Amino acid sequence: MTENQRILELLKQYLESDPNPEVQKELLNLINRKDSEENIKSAIQQLIESGNLEEIPQPIDLQSRIDAILQVDITPEQPKLRTFNWSWVRYAAAIILFIAAAAYWFSWNASITKSDNNYNQNKLANTTEVEPGTEGAVLTLADGTQIVLDSLEDGVITTISGAELKLTDGQLQYQTSSSTSLESESTSTGVLYHTLTTPRGRQFSLTLPDGTMVWLNAASSIRFPLVFPENERKVEVSGEVYFEVVKKMRGGKTKSDSEPVPFFVNTRNQQIEVLGTHFNVNAYEDDEDERTTLLEGSVKVSPQPHIHTDDISATRPVILKPGQQTVISGQNGLTKPVFVSTDEVMAWKNGLFQFDRTNIHQIMKQVARWYNVDVVYKNNLSQMDFSGTVARSENISEVLKMLELTGAIRFRLEGRTVVVFK
Fold it and tell me: Fewer Cβ close by (within 10 Å): the C or N end of the chain?
């Protein structure tokens, strides 16, 4: 019996009556395998097109099960060659959707009506509430002075050698009337560096002295000079940072002699060289991998000198095209560029959590950073993946409740600690 035939048989058994635990376990295991996706889709299609759905007895409580668990409203496609009892197909499709949801096809924002009745069945073991993160950061000046930006109103924060540091619509901006005094100050005292840091539970944005715009996710930082040298621009980052780099030209004797001034971003394991482009860097210290994703323009990604691997190709620079991502780790070096979902990569900047078969540990790392909580695991959950989208503006309980709706995982809030268990 082929895998496709076995899935079809299990689906029929699931619909015919309350499935025994062995049937349910086998079906969920098959659905949870990523390489079974095509066979699952094929089996579902065969089941709907077979015309035998009406022969399956309809459980009395099927509608209540669907409404209570999913609140799904499925509108079938128009039939092409034959007419089906579409109300029955709706029931079948809803049950199939429920099964798939328990594995990884669960979409939080597409079909769930968030009501108290729904959540009565999925209450967290503790009702402690944790609010979402907000705008805020700490600016460390060259002399070590720290300025907490969370509660400051718009306006000038301070002035350093002719440079005004100001908040405009909650964004930190560096504005200079002339770079001459700044260059003199840097020459006499050495390069002056500032560092902007977002703690857990905070995010922030700024405009660098050259006009480049930068957004920092929670638990991130950027170190940059108060004035960039004429021949290059360099910054250092950790955590997750999105850049929109402005193109700068270095003057020559004639306009044709002008050259672009490169912009370098350094992380623990890589250096990214750009001229003028939009890209995202994910380089958290508690993650082994660092990811660079290009949205617009072109960047060159190079491993830092300390990166060594047996694969020589993994130590060579790569050029990214828009939509591509490369991954680097200290042990494996740099991967070849691959195309990825930029919507998922940029979800954090757009106010969302967005996952596509993402491991629960990676999901909870994002949750921990944004809500400033600790996470404790009571079971081995390393093989559990989830998909879905939810707003980062929701309280933590809303995010955890949606994960619990899969029926595969549970959470308990103990102050600012999230306990994860089956």
Answer: N
